Amino acid sequence: MTPGRKGLLDRLKSGVVIGDGGFVFSLEKRGYVKAGPWTPEAAVEHPEAVKSLHREFLRAGSDVMQAFTFYASDDKLINRGNEAGKKFTGAEINDAACKLARDVANEGDALVGGGISQTPAYLSGKGKQNVQAEFRKQVKVFVQNDVDFLICEYFEHIEEMEWAIEVCKESSLPVAATMCIGKEGDMHGVDAGTCAVRMAKAGADVVGLNCHYGPYEMLEAIAVMKKALDAAGLKPYLMTQPLAYHTPDAGRQGFIDLPEFPFALEPRICTRWDMQSYARQAYELGVRYIGGCCGVESYHIRAVSEELAKERGKSPKSSEKHEPWGEGLKMHTKPWVRARARRDYWENLKPATGRPYCTAFSCPDNWGVTAGSEDLKQKAESTSAEELQKVFQKSKK
User: Fold this and answer.
1) Which pLDDT does position 321 carry in this prediction?
2) Rg, C-alpha atoms of the chain
């Protein structure tokens, strides 16, 4: 814990904590992350790019600099043809990411969170001992770097999540746990409410959701979780970090099943006003750790910060050049644009895509495979042309 700085649980007890946004998607768009593996070797290869993104979120009001350690377990770094596992160890990437996050956190009053996520070892059926060994290597680096708390994020199976929380609880740090599931539950059919209860009973101080679903779908799921937690008499803090995409047509596996994933999601992007609405609804539901995940840029986080400025007692630095609800438009040259400088205009706007004949929804792939399926067995080699052909044939069925 940084001396003189309030910790995560103290901040949550007294108010709301604003998380940051998405790193892998943002850095992939900027040319620093490879789509597919989604691994964070940019923390070593391009530290200034990572640091710059941290700064954007800090300026937008983020209270947490989450170290860029997504998918940085050794087993992930060497699977699916990714060269990072040969060039850098997981420890090297995690260490670099923690230092970058701490440097920027110290420029403000932010905390540093070190995160672990689901492993290829679990999907390949290698068992609890092997899976937890991967987690321990990462947590060891986080503890050495004196992060302020630990995050177990992006888990599709409650069993693996419990294993992750168990390892994190071996430290003395607070633990936040978020699954990438919707209201239907995890990939083994465990409902969302039961998942929440099991996370809390495993020892998570903060329980919630991240990724795979947009803000409104996630709000539905966190409401299910809260109801189950209340019924069980459990009172962890609640946390939501949704996508910045609208996903009403996504199934159990979320936006990954949408045909637009990952390179054509832009027509689904949430406006800043969508994010303000999400922030208010999440707060009223009792969520106190409110942030974002893939697709969430700094202006989205600024919108969250501005919506909750009264509750936080402050506005983000980036609001110095941005007035709420478009007030700055009153100075625009065109009178019809000046007329848009009001809340009711933006709250009620239904944005057009500008794409003739586009459908409102897509037809998700919905393969439904989960841990134990041969399709998910992980390997180091890139998928061969013959293997891809088999995948193409399956997708046509």
Assistant:
1) 87
2) 21
Q: Kindly report, residue by residue over 151-169, the tens digit of the pLDDT.
A: 999 999 999 999 999 999 9
Q: Per-residue pLDDT tens for 318-374?
A: 999 888 888 899 999 999 999 999 999 999 999 999 999 899 999 888 666 666 666
User: Containing H/E element for 241?
Assistant: strand 237-241
What token pair was written down for 245?
A: 């995409």
Looking at residue 277, its amino acid is S
Task: Give CA angle at 14 (213, 275), nearest 5°.
Answer: 30
Question: Alpha helix (H) ranges present in the chain?
Answer: 8-14, 24-29, 42-45, 47-60, 74-77, 84-87, 90-105, 120-123, 127-144, 158-168, 192-202, 215-231, 272-285, 298-307, 309-312, 335-338, 343-348, 385-396
The amino acid at 35: A
- Supply 130's token pair: 């092997």
Is a pLDDT exceeding 70 seen at residue 45?
yes
